[in-house]
From TrEMBL:
The modification 4-aspartylphosphate is found at D55. This is DNA-binding response regulator. It holds the Pfam family Response_reg. It comes from the Bacteria. Residues 3-120 form the Response regulatory domain. It comes from Paenibacillus agaridevorans. GO terms for molecular function: DNA-binding transcription factor activity; sequence-specific DNA binding.
Length: 557
């Protein structure tokens, strides 16, 4: 929607331009008018305008003075000046300004329409922000550290690895996407009783990351990231120069040997530099990217277990360690909890194809738990339940659909045997929740649109500008315009024209009101503009239409 302000001290010109442009629905204009420079200035202080179509010579504040105010407030606003033959000095000064056009008043409406269309095309082209978009790569260079971290952690949480090679290239990750990885996880312990500030914690996290990378990078490719729980995750690979097809295993063995040998040195360096203890768990086998999430879960489990012994442990975790007979289930639990952390985002995006398999994994795992695993089962269940309950509340569907959502089935899980049944209910509930959310969105949108329609019907002769309509429902004007078209299939301008036409036809058919009075009743500033509008839609004048109706009625009588 393009917002255009018409400024002319001659009302007949301003009104004529307003009515002419109002009926060019393909331009999707939100139109305003002012009868003086000062009136225009008041409107410019309260609204952003894309185009100002203004007379250049006006009493009080002329067009050039108005232009200076426009440039100081809305620098991107285009200005089209209407000039007379004797305005050369004004025109010469005006055309020194970028984004200013001018045309002669004597050239008529077709020329005005042509210039306005050209300016609108220019605005829409500029809004593609081609120069800004071309600069995204430069910005991404600066943001690459964050993007690399987010992507790698996303992989650990079970994201698809199908486009891994393309993503690695785009993000310029210093790792080989076709090669397996050796994973290492660090647990950073906060020693202050009151906890560090956000800035302090960020400084410590990145200092640790830098220390680890500096110590290990001479002997391997390494990329580290800090996850949302403050854990250091390191992805290790052999240097490209040390890899041969028949020496890959040895290359990874060298990486493991070097890393494990350096971990105590790294711990000391971190303690001396940032005064925090850190524990490390490193896998003794390299793993594929597809299986990295499971290895990550295994390392987390090892760190959690070892942290009960000391805050600065170093442990190497193998595939066949037998320290705990429940290791496999514990790893699956950890991996599942990592994935459940993505549940809120999956629900908000409506990704059923990812949601249902995730809950299916939870149900399978819960069905294997014994009575001694009640706490773990409850954690899995209630983390899922809380995500669903939060979704229900923020979607605004709880109070309106109490009969369809039985929260007691979702939240009641007081025994291990009842947990799979609770997850079953959650699995069945998700498609319903997504459907109810869409229904609630549609209901709210329809309520807003109905309110707009009622206001238009009651105020056809008043202010039905997009800005006024948006104020009624506390929406941004551009958003309201999109919502109206999305909901009704037509623009607000087209709808207003349709309602004005229906009301005009009704008044012509069922009343003896004068044409001038009818034109004012349906929101036109003059009978001439009303007649032009009416002829466009019916191919007859208002009087011709009224006469035709009277003839038809007389024949019926």
């Amino acid at each position: 929607m393009i917002r255009l302000l018409i400024v002319d001290d001659e009302p007949i010109i301003a009104d004529g331009l307003f009515e002419t442009l109002l009926h060019l629905t393909h331009l999707e204009l939100d139109l305003y008018k002012a009868y003086s420079g000062m009136d225009a200035l008041r409107q410019l202080k309260n609204n952003r305008f894309d185009i100002v179509l203004s007379d250049i010579r006006m009493p009080g504040m002329n067009g050039l003075e108005l232009l200076r105010h426009i440039r100081s407030t809305w620098a991107d606003c285009r200005v089209v000046f209407l000039t007379g033959f004797n305005d050369f000095d004004y025109v010469y000064e005006a055309i020194q300004n970028q984004g200013v056009h001018y045309l002669l008043k004597t050239e008529g409406y077709p020329k005005v329409i042509s210039v306005v269309e050209s300016v609108i095309d220019d605005i829409r082209t500029s809004r593609q922000w081609s120069e800004l978009v071309s600069g995204v790569n430069e910005r991404m260079e600066a943001a690459n550290q964050v993007l690399q971290k987010e992507y790698l952690l996303h992989l650990l949480n079970g994201a698809s690895t199908a486009d891994r090679e393309e993503q690695f290239e785009q993000l310029k990750l210093p790792l080989d996407p076709t090669l397996s990885i050796l994973l290492m996880v660090g647990r950073i312990t906060t020693v202050r009783s009151d906890g560090p500030t956000y800035t302090e914690r960020t400084r410590v996290d990145y200092s640790i990351q830098l220390i680890v990378e500096r110590h290990l990078s001479p002997a391997m490719r390494i990329k580290c990231a800090i996850d949302d729980r403050g854990r250091l995750v390191c992805f290790l690979q052999p240097l490209a120069s040390s890899i041969e097809p028949d020496t890959l295993e040895q290359a990874f063995a060298n990486v493991l040997m070097f890393a494990t040998s350096m971990l105590d040195v790294i711990q000391q360096s971190i303690q001396l530099s940032v005064q925090v203890p850190i524990s490390f768990a490193i896998s003794n086998r390299h793993t594929s990217w597809e299986e990295s999430g499971r290895t990550f879960a295994r390392l987390q489990y090892a760190l959690d277990y070892q942290s009960s012994i000391d805050s600065e442990t170093i442990v190497t975790v193998g595939e066949s360690d037998e320290d705990d007979e429940h290791r496999t289930d514990d790893e699956e639990i950890r991996l599942l909890l990592n994935k459940i952390g993505m549940l809120d985002a999956l629900l908000d995006d409506g990704r059923v194809d990812d949601l249902l398999p995730l809950l299916g994994q939870a149900k399978t795992l819960l069905s294997r738990l014994t009575s001694g695993d009640t706490g773990v089962g409850m954690e899995i269940h209630y983390r899922i339940a809380v995500s669903l309950l939060s979704y229900i509340n923020r979607s605004g569907i709880a109070s309106r659909h109490e009969d369809e959502i039985d929260l007691s089935k979702l939240l009641r899980a007081d025994h291990p045997d009842s947990l799979p049944f609770a997850i079953d209910y959650a699995i069945g509930l998700i498609p319903l929740l997504l459907e109810l959310r869409q229904s609630e969105r549609n209901r709210k949108a329809t309520k807003v649109i109905d309110r707009i329609k009622d206001y238009i019907a009651d105020n056809l002769a008043g202010d039905v500008s997009l800005t006024r309509l948006a104020d009624i429902v506390y929406f941004n004007p551009a958003y309201l315009s999109r919502l109206f078209k999305k909901t009704t299939g037509m623009t607000i301008i087209d709808y207003i024209h349709e309602i004005r036409m229906k009301e005009a036809l009704s008044l012509l058919e069922n009343s003896d009101m004068k044409i001038q009075d009818i034109s004012e009743a349906v929101g036109f500033t003059s009978a001439t503009n009303f007649t032009r509008f009416f002829r466009k839609y019916t191919r007859s004048t208002p009087n011709e239409y009224r006469d035709l109706i009277r003839v038809k009625k007389s024949k019926l009588d």
